[in-house]
Write a structure and sequence with these properties.
174 residues; alpha/beta; 5-stranded mixed beta sheet; two-stranded antiparallel sheet; 5 helices
Length: 174
């Protein structure tokens, strides 16, 4: 009898783990940087030749850091929402142009609108690695002290903006 109970017990444990795993959202990848200082960097700005950007420039402000690229299909999905959101002026949105060609990125913003107060150019993807970017688009909410408070993986949707991002921004802005 014991020789049947052990395999049955192992099978039941595996089924439970599989059932739990199937209920999880594969886009929810926990960020090890949450509640830690945003990695420091200095990068050139896309639209302002000779100017640089560093997260230290945003100290004292709550801001969104959106990783995007002209070659990114999902970025096209979220871009109209970002453009509309930026017009509201609730919080500054800084772009990180990730592994892109400068002319393609500038053309893309000219064609679809520029929601960013500025975009930093991460041509080789090193800053993306520091932030744990594994795919674009990704958006980070960074507080006044320069701490990452949230990472949103994938395109921002009206629902994620209203239910997750904006309430957090409002709380951090107090």
């Amino acid at each position: 009898m014991k020789r049947f109970l052990i395999p049955l017990g192992v099978f039941v444990v595996l089924v439970v783990f599989l059932a739990v795993g199937l209920t999880l959202n594969p886009r929810d990848v926990p960020s090890p940087l949450k509640d830690k200082p945003a990695p420091a960097f200095t990068l050139p700005q896309l639209a302002a030749a000779g100017k640089i950007f560093s997260p230290a420039d945003m100290k004292g402000r709550v801001w969104l850091f959106n990783v995007w690229a002209s070659w990114c299909v999902s970025c096209r999905q979220e871009h109209p929402l970002l453009v509309a959101f930026a017009k509201e002026g609730k919080v500054p949105v800084v772009g990180l142009n990730y592994k892109d060609q400068e002319t393609d990125a500038k053309g893309w913003l000219a064609q679809f609108g520029d929601p960013y107060v500025l975009s930093a150019v991460d041509a080789d993807g090193r800053v993306g690695i520091d932030y744990g970017v594994y795919g674009v688009p990704e958006t980070y909410v960074i507080d006044k002290a320069g701490m990452i408070r949230m990472k949103h993986t994938g395109p921002i949707t009206p629902e994620s903006l209203q239910k997750q991002i904006l309430p957090l921004v409002a709380e951090l802005s107090k």
